[in-house]
Amino acid sequence: MPEERNKEKDECLECKKKDARWRQDFPVEWESDNYVTRREMVKFLALGSLTIAGANAVVAGLPHILKAAEMPRMKVGEISSIPVRGSKLFSYPTKADPCILVRQQNGELVAYSQVCTHLSCAVVHNEQENALFCPCHHGYFSVDEGRPFAGPPTRPLPRIKLEQQGNEIFAVGVEV
Amino acid sequence: MNGADSMEFFIDYSRCIGCKACIQACEECDTHRGVSMIHLETIMRSDSVQTAPQICMHCEDPICAQVCPADAIKKTPDGIVQSSLKPRCIGCSNCVLACPFGVPKYKAEINQMMKCDMCYDRTSIGKRPMCATVCPSGALTFTTREDIERTRQGVAIREWQFGGEVVRTKVNVLVPRSVQKIDVSLEQIGRTTTDEYDVANLLLGD
Question: Is the dihedral of CA B90, B93, B95, B101 positive or negative?
Answer without folding.
Answer: positive
